[in-house]
Amino acid sequence: MKNFIVLTIVLATLLACKNSKSNKIDELQESERVEDLLQEYNERISTAIKTSSFEAIHDLYDQESLLFTDYNPLIVHSDNIKIYYDTIFARQNIKEYHRETIDVIEFSNRIIEIGLFTTVFENSKKLKGKYFNVWKKMVNGKLMIRAEALGYLEHIDDPKVFLVPEASTSVLKTIEIPRELMAYTTLGKSNVIARIPEKTADSYTDDTMYLPFADTIKTGKAVLLDHYKAYYQNPAKIDSLEIMTYAYDKVENGYIKYGGFYVDWTVPGFSGNTTGSGISYWRREKDNSLRIHRQIGLHIHK
């Protein structure tokens, strides 16, 4: 009887090890498949931009797709996204275009992809930017763009060349979000108003990646803290701040939030306001808190 019990335990252990190894192989194969798909889709996107043909990538978008771009309000639905790209392509003569994926986070139903791009126009002017894509995993094994966000690494002298107001006729209504996420959003809002760098940076994970408006990507909380210390040197006072959520996705260890903001501010001798949008991935940490792990922020031109 004793030998039988020992044998049973050994067999169970071997089976568990085999299943664990099999699961790891499956996960590796799935990651490789996703990597191949992203490479294929990015090649298609590059070709579409270089040939000014949105039709080459139209099937990557659907009625739920969201497009966030610097200077434009949120663009909703594949039809409006087509209007945006067709208009932009008609204005620009692109000589070269390159894009590079620098970060991928995979979930059971979503994929976050972050990267950099460079556009060279016929007049040899070069424009560098960053992107933040959220992909939906479809039942047929393919991917669709849930949300696409595009920003630049510097201020644009004439933002009007990127404005396509006719693409932003459909505006999503703001929605309620889970109470926990709302609490952290409210805390983050208070920290921004207080303009204390340490408190603002504390809303992020240690290995965060933040894509700020008209700036380079900031990786790691230490780098982000330096960013906010410099940013808050500007003598501005936040008079009011509103944070909106248009949609969110629940993922295994947190939330992906699609939203915007409106802020009234005052500097010595002048008052104004700023409107923006963006995507943020809030990750569940070991202490069960939520922190911003990936984020892109964009401004809307008035």
Describe the structure.
The chain folds into 2 domains: 19-168, Nuclear Transport Factor 2, Chain: A; 179-299, Roll (Nuclear Transport Factor 2, Chain: A), CATH 3.10.450.50. The protein has helices at 2-50, 78-91, 179-194, 197-201, 221-231, and strands at 66-69, 75-76, 94-106, 110-121, 126-137, 143-152, 204-211, 218-219, 237-251, 254-267, 270-284, 290-299. The strands form 2 sheets. Strands 2-1-6-5-4-3 form a 6-stranded mixed sheet, with helices on one face. The mean pLDDT is 93. The chain has 302 residues and is an alpha+beta fold. It starts with a helix and ends with a strand.
Could you name the CATH class of the largest domain? Alpha Beta
The end-to-end distance, rounded to whole angstroms, is: 81 Å
Enumerate the strands of the largest sheet in spatial order, edge to edge or round the barrel.
2-1-6-5-4-3
Q: Give the proportion of residues in helices.
A: 25-40%
Secondary-structure element order, N to C: HEEHEEEEHHEEHEEEE
Rg from Cα: 22 Å
How is the biggest beta sheet arranged? 6 strands, mixed
Enter the CATH topology name of the largest domain. Nuclear Transport Factor 2, Chain: A
Amount of beta strand = 35-45%
Total strands: the figure is 12
Structural class: alpha+beta
Question: pLDDT average, as an integer?
Answer: 93
- The global form is globular
What is the total domain count?
2
Oligomeric assembly: single chain
Count of DSSP-assigned helices: 5
> How does CATH name the architecture of the largest domain?
Roll
The low-pLDDT segments are none
